[in-house]
Design goal:
Elements (H helix, E strand, L loop, with lengths): L2 H8 L7 H14 L13 H15 L10 H37 L4 E7 L5 E7 L10 H4 L20 H8 L7 H7 L3 E3 L6 H4 L4 H4 L7 E3 L1 H4 L7 H14 L2 H17 L5
Parallel strand pairs: 3-4
Antiparallel strand pairs: 1-2
Helix pairs in contact: 1-3, 4-7
C-alpha cells in the first residue's frame, strides 16, 4: 500500500476509502461532470504529509519528462525574481488602495491564504486578495454542490460567499496580485500549472498528478485559453503539454498572452 492509499484508508473521516476515491474520480471522468461533494475538506499536518508523500512517490513513476535543463531553470528563476519584484514595486500603491477598499467593505483582513500543492507535491501557502467572506472556507461544505466546473476544481460564478468588491476583483484577476510575493519567494513561478488544493489532489488519478511535476505558476496555457471555460481534462492536457515543451520563449509568449486575456476578462469567474 502506497502513502496515498494509506492516507485514504486511515483518514479521520473513516468512511472514505481508496476504492471510494477511485470510483469518485473515474465516475467524474466518464460523465464529464464536476464534483459536487468532496470526500475530504480538512487536512491536518499528518494527513497533508501523507498526501504530499504519496504524490511524490507516485510522480517517481511518471512517464512524463519535463523539458528544460539547469540553464533554463536558472534563467526562469532570474526572470521570475526580476518581473515579480518590479511588478510589486510598481503596484505597491494600487495594492495598498485595494487592501483598504476590501477592509472598509467588511472590516476584515484584505488578504486570504490557503495551502496549495506545487512541484513534487510540496505544500505552500498561496496568497490572494480576499474576495469572499472571512469564514468562506468553513462555509465551503454548504456550497460545494453548486460546482459549475466539469472536473475536480470548484467554480461558481454566483457563489454566495463572494463579497461586494470580491466579484469585481475576481473578474479582473486583481485578487491574484499577492501571488507575485509567492513568485518572489520562490513558491511559484510566473508561468506554470496552477497550484491545486489538497482536496482536489487527493482525488487525482496518477495521470492528473503529472501536473505537479514542475513548480506551479500564476498562469499557463489554460489561463490563456479560457480559464474557467476550459474542460478539466483539456486543462490537464494543456498542463502536460506545457511541462513537456516549456522553454524561455514559450514562457514569454504565455506571459504576453496572459496580459491580453486578463484585459479581456475571458473565462474569469
Amino acid at each position: 500500500m502506497n502513502i496515498v492509499a494509506e492516507y485514504r484508508t486511515k483518514t479521520s473521516e473513516g468512511a472514505v476509502t481508496e476504492e471510494m476515491m477511485t470510483e469518485v474520480t473515474l465516475d467524474l471522468l466518464k460523465k464529464n461532470k464536476g464534483i459536487t461533494e468532496y470526500p475530504i475538506l480538512e487536512f491536518d499536518n499528518r494527513a497533508l504529509g501523507l498526501l504530499c508523500g504519496g504524490v511524490s512517490e507516485t510522480l517517481k513513476h511518471s512517464n512524463v519528462k519535463p523539458s528544460g535543463g539547469i540553464i533554463y531553470l536558472f534563467f526562469k528563476r532570474v526572470i521570475d525574481i526580476i518581473i515579480s519584484f518590479t511588478a510589486l514595486l510598481i503596484l505597491l500603491i494600487p495594492m495598498l488602495i485595494i487592501s483598504l477598499i476590501i477592509f472598509i467593505d467588511d472590516r476584515e483582513s484584505p488578504f486570504f491564504s490557503q495551502i496549495r500543492l506545487t512541484e513534487n507535491g510540496k505544500p505552500f501557502r498561496m496568497y490572494k486578495f480576499r474576495s469572499m467572506c472571512k469564514d468562506a472556507e468553513k462555509k465551503f461544505s454548504e456550497v460545494q454542490k453548486e460546482n459549475e466546473c466539469d472536473g475536480l476544481a470548484f467554480k461558481n460564478e454566483n457563489d454566495p460567499r463572494i463579497t461586494r468588491i470580491g466579484g469585481f476583483i475576481r473578474k479582473t484577476s486583481i485578487d491574484e496580485l499577492p501571488q507575485l510575493w509567492n513568485v518572489l519567494k520562490g513558491d511559484m513561478s510566473l508561468i506554470g500549472p496552477r497550484p491545486p488544493l489538497p482536496r482536489e489532489v487527493v482525488l487525482y488519478t496518477p495521470e492528473q498528478m503529472d501536473r505537479l511535476l514542475v513548480k506551479g505558476g500564476l498562469s499557463c496555457i489554460c489561463q490563456c485559453e479560457g480559464r474557467s471555460d476550459m474542460e478539466f481534462d483539456k486543462w490537464v492536457e494543456s498542463d502536460i503539454e506545457y511541462i513537456e515543451n516549456r522553454s524561455i520563449k514559450m514562457d514569454f509568449s504565455l506571459l504576453v498572452r496572459t496580459f491580453a486575456v486578463v484585459l479581456k476578462r475571458k473565462g474569469a469567474k
